[in-house]
Every structure is written in C-alpha cells, then in structure tokens.
Amino acid sequence: MQTRMSGAILSVMAKTSFNPILEGLRGKMGNVVFRQLYGKTVVSRVPDFSRRKLSAAQKAHLRQFKAAALQAQAALKDPKRRAAYQAKARRQKRPLIAVAISDCYQQGTTNG
Q1: 25 and 71 in a common domain
Q2: How far is the C-alpha of 3 from the C-alpha of 12, rounded, in Å?
Q3: Is residue 50 part of a domain?
Q4: What are the 10-residue block averages of pLDDT along the chain, 112 residues in total?
Q5: Diameter of the chain measured on Cα atoms
C-alpha cells in the first residue's frame, strides 16, 4: 500500500497491536520484514535496492567498512586480541564483532 505525501510516494507499513506471537519478532520472512520501531512490531515489504546508484563517497565507505570487517574477523582469531575485545564489548554492552569492526574501521580511517 502506498500513499502520496508532499509529492513523494511513501510505503505504508503495517503495525501490530498486542499480539504475543509477534512480540519482539524481527527479521525477514518471505517478502516481508519485521522490525521493532519505538517498542512496536512493524511489518513492511522487503526494500528493493536494485535501482540504487551509489555515489563515489558511498562506494569508498563500503570498501573501507568491508576491509575493517575482514580485519576484525582476522583479529578475533588471535586469542589475546579476542579477549581484549570481549572485555571491551562487555564494558560497552555491545556485540563482540561490532566492537572489533568499529576499532578496525577507526584505525583504518585515521591511518590512511
């Protein structure tokens, strides 16, 4: 379902009211996506990125992020570095891989 607002076409998402089966559900199922938005479950169609054109800056950012992710995966194979990242992840209450990628990304952007 779509609606027109100020000349732009917006996709309308379905919101669920109290439903214990859908509570906290998130992820993709078939051609729909379940998300948590402001404490409510929202259902929408899978976004279509087939016509998306990335700018040069966006492509550069994706390359840097991919390099950081690969570097983080390699770093987590080292037991000493993994232990350091696990301690940092616990302190920050963030996932281990997110902390490692963030650290590698920041090192990569400041070094070069």
Answers
A1: no
A2: 7
A3: no
A4: 45 61 79 84 88 95 95 95 96 94 86 54
A5: 56
